[in-house]
């Protein structure tokens, strides 16, 4: 018997009529897709609003993609499991500008589970998985990213991630380059 691959699982989710408005192709049924997400007041189901994504309604589908990525990232999941109680990153404030994908979300959630506080922006206007960004925002993580950002929106997102009131990062991650702060 053949094991189910991640592609098979995603195909099954997509074909099963995943959450309304969610789409593996990054197309959204939201009628406001032609407007910038930053033009809208956004809030998740818990009242959290320190984020800006294309469509928060895609969060359930993004969560499924993250769960699939977790199955493929045994190293991070083992680290999370072994060190979660110790909180070795307690007090760390990490701001990052990387691709926003399901795999990046696993990294974000691992950093958080190890005690860090994180804020995230996309490093590429084309690579963001909108549904994953929505799932991250729904979980209460500050994320500023959507596929198809304009150059102005790109810099706005970075500013929102980096310049939060009362929050000074101790570590900055830009793509794959790490810079240690005070």
Describe this structure in words.
This protein is 37% helix and 12% strand. The chain is an alpha/beta fold and 182 residues long. The chain has a five-stranded mixed sheet with strand order 3-2-1-4-5, with helices on both faces. β1 (93-98), α4 (102-113) and β2 form a beta-alpha-beta unit. The longest helix is centred in the middle third of the chain and has 14 residues, at 59-72. The N and C termini lie far apart (54 Å).
Keywords:
alpha/beta, 182 residues, 12% strand
In short:
The protein has about 180 residues and is an alpha/beta fold. The protein has helices at about 5-15, 60-70, 75-85, 100-115, 130-140, 150-160, and strands at about 95-100, 115-120, 145, 170-175, 175-180. The longest helix is centred in the middle third of the chain and has 14 residues, at about 60-70.
Topology:
Blueprint: H1 6-15, H2 59-72, H3 74-83, E1 93-98, H4 102-113, E2 117-122, H5 130-138, E3 143-144, H6 151-162, E4 171-174, E5 177-180
Query: How is the biggest beta sheet arranged?
Result: 5 strands, mixed
Mean pLDDT: 84
Spans of 5+ residues with little confidence (pLDDT < 50)? Answer: 13-32, 176-180
- Cross-sheet strand order for the largest sheet: 3-2-1-4-5
Morphology: globular
Query: What is the beta-strand fraction?
Result: 5-15%
End-to-end separation in angstroms reads 54 Å
Give the beta-strand count. Answer: 5
* Helicity level: 25-40%
Query: How many helices does DSSP assign?
Result: 6
Counting helices, strands and paired strands, the structural category is: alpha/beta
Reading the helices and strands in chain order gives HHHEHEHEHEE
| Radius of gyration, CA atoms, in whole angstroms | 16 Å
């Amino acid at each position: 018997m053949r094991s189910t691959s991640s592609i098979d699982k995603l195909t099954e989710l997509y074909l099963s009529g995943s959450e309304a408005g969610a789409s593996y192709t990054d197309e959204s049924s939201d009628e406001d897709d032609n407007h910038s997400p930053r033009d809208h007041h956004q809030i998740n189901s818990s009242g959290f609003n320190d984020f800006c994504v294309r469509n928060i309604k895609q969060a359930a589908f993004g969560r499924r993609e993250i769960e699939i990525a977790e199955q493929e990232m045994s190293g991070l999941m083992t680290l999370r499991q072994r060190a979660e109680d110790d909180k070795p990153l307690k007090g760390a404030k990490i701001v990052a500008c990387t691709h926003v994908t399901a795999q990046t979300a696993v990294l974000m959630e691992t950093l958080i589970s190890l005690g860090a506080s994180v804020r995230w922006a996309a490093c590429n206007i084309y690579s963001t998985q909108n549904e994953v960004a929505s799932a991250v925002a729904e979980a209460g993580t500050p994320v500023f990213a959507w596929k198809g950002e304009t150059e102005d929106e790109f810099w706005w997102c970075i500013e929102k991630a980096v310049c939060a009131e009362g929050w000074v990062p101790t570590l900055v991650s830009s793509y794959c380059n790490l810079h240690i702060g005070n």
